[in-house]
Amino acid sequence: MENILWIASFVVLGTIAYGMILMERGAKSDRPRLKKVLRTNLAVFIPTIVGAMVLMAPQAVQAATGTTQVNGLGLLAAALSTGLATIGTGYAVGVVGSSALGAVSEDDSILGKTLIFVGLAEGIAIYGLIISIMILGKL
Fold it and tell me: What are the CA-CA distances from residue 19 to residues 5, 7, 29, 31, 44 (Å)?
């Protein structure tokens, strides 16, 4: 398990070092190559960390609580439901909020309607939190 974390750390540190080397050179022609390396980094690092969390979470929870009846994948599902819902909320509020600001600058009478749309976008986070509470209640 520790090997997975070491590999992921080396990938990240290698990408950072490569990016610093390219910045030091000041070559703008290497920009596509840097983007390709960053995409590769994300394609390797994120699944590696998620895999390590799935494999190591049950042992960490068992060590912290002292019980053997905790389902690590259930805890991971609860965390993912809240985390992904808040990421979606952030994106939705950013898009809807900027559009609402532009619309209100054109016509002040539609402020109430735009606030409703922003509120609907914020509701996504509440739904994710409710789902994670329901998952934790089943554990």
Answer: 21, 18, 13, 9, 17
